[in-house]
Amino acid sequence: MSEAGTVMPARRSQADLVSGLGLALLMLGFGVVLAFSVGRFPVGMGDLLAALWSRISGQPSGLPAATEAVIFNIRGPRVLAAILCGAALAAAGAAFQGLFRNPLVSPDILGASSGAALGAVIGIFFSLGIFGIQALAFAGGLLAVALVYMIGSAIRGSDTVLVLVLTGVVIGALLGAGVGLMKYLADPYNQLPAMTFWLLGSLSGTDKHDLLPLFGPVLAGTLVLFALRWRMNVMSLPEEEARALGLSTGLIRLAIVAAATLVTAASVAAAGVIGWVGLIVPHLARFLVGPDFGRLIPTAAILGGGYLLVIDTLARSAASVEIPLGILTALIGTPFFILLLMRARKSWS
After folding, report:
1. Under a CB-based contact definition with an 8 Å cutoff, are residues 332 and 277 in contact?
2. What integer best gives the mean pLDDT of the chain?
3. Cα(184)–Cα(71) distance, rounded to whole angstroms?
4. Could you report how far apart the first and last alpha carbons of the chain are, in Å?
5. Residue range 10-29: average pLDDT?
6. Using one digit for the tens of pLDDT, what is the confidence trace for 274-330?
7. What radius of gyration do the chain's Cα atoms show?
8. Residues 231 and 99: beta-carbon distance below 8 Å
9. Distance (Å, rounded) from C-alpha 272 to C-alpha 293?
10. pLDDT for the residue 13
């Protein structure tokens, strides 16, 4: 079957798997080269390698101080942040699509993005610094999913997955209303533009101090998802079959949701709300390496990092002013989503 997460993984030849992973790495490498070579201050690969070797060996690079400042203080942190955010959203999307056995699920299905958005706009409303805004966004995403999971667990139903999804939709709508209320109450000259820009997603203000709060949760959550890879394969089966194979589905589901939420909240806290990455990239990764989560999670993470890096480069260089990431990902993701629905309709008929 072609739909994600409805059957056990099909076998793929080793050559197909190697070529798929190679294409993902090639896209990531292309994204890195493009990010450094495009912009108002382009940096060639020779200069980039010389600067990196200088930091590793401790020898002088011979480059101008301005070039090293661009590499290590301006563009370098932004490149790393784009890779981490894209990898987090894509890995979380792949995990949620398998867990909920639905190819149209994205990382914000349980309200993580809505909770993080509400936390961020509250921080902006009270004129907190960037650290306070990011901390509230991170906490808001985690608390939103925790609330969804608590309510969903308290509602006894025959389909646990369906109950969680519906609860996530309801809580997400409630949190969205909270975001709308904060925007209505905000100062229209200072706070409202800042809220709007943040909600559309951007990496323009990223510096090296933002990397550690992003790197830790993304690494921890992605490692947990990879460690649960074979259990995620079994969890893609119907609930009764997974239990018959000896899995404690409730605990495994909680662990997957917690890890995917952790990386999603960290990404939203660092870059704002960026849609579509966690929806379309897992499908591209599944096309390259198949549905086995042992290969799907790392491939989706690599592809997601390269994809968002290319989008971010386009966002800062396509116009005289920076375009929000959410606008570009929607422009690219919408036609892909329509094609996906057309393909799904053919499989239904």
Report:
1. no
2. 88
3. 40
4. 14
5. 79
6. 989 999 999 999 988 988 999 999 999 999 999 999 999 999 998 888 999 999 999
7. 21
8. no
9. 27
10. 64
In this predicted structure, the answer to whether residue 200 has a pLDDT above a threshold of 50 is yes
Question: Quick check: 326 and 47 in contact, CB under 8 A?
Answer: no
Judge contact between 212 and 285, C-beta under 8 A: no
Alpha carbons 280 and 282: distance in angstroms, whole number:
6
Query: Can you read off the two tokens belonging to residue 168?
Result: 């996530």
Per-domain boundaries in the chain: 77-348
C-alpha to C-alpha distances, 121 to 73, 142, 269, nearest whole angstrom: 27, 16, 11
- Whether CATH 1.10.3470.10 fits 77-348: yes
- pLDDT band with cut points at 50, 70 and 90 for residue 18: confident
SS3 content of the chain, % helix, strand, coil (to 5): 75, 0, 25
Query: With contact defined as beta carbons under 8 Å apart, do 206 and 270 qualify?
Result: yes
65, 69, 72, 76: CA torsion to nearest 10: -130
Kindly list the distances between the CA atom of residue 167 and the CA atoms of 160, 205, 213, 224, 319, in Å, as whole numbers in the listed order.
11, 34, 29, 25, 40
Two tokens, residue 188: 């229209």
Kindly report the pTM of this predicted structure: 0.89
Tokens found for residue 156? 């006894």
Strand, coil or helix: 109: coil
Confidence of residue 103 (pLDDT cuts 50, 70, 90): confident
**What pLDDT sits at residue 211?**
92
CA–CA distance, 179 with 233 (Å, rounded to integer): 36
Cα 131 to Cα 56: distance, rounded to the nearest angstrom: 30
Fill in the DSSP letter of residue 228: T
DSSP character string of 4-18: TTSSPPPP--HHHHH
The closest alpha carbon to 27, from 281, 208, 290, belongs to 281
Q: For the chain, what is the total number of helices (H) and then of strands (E)?
A: 15, 0
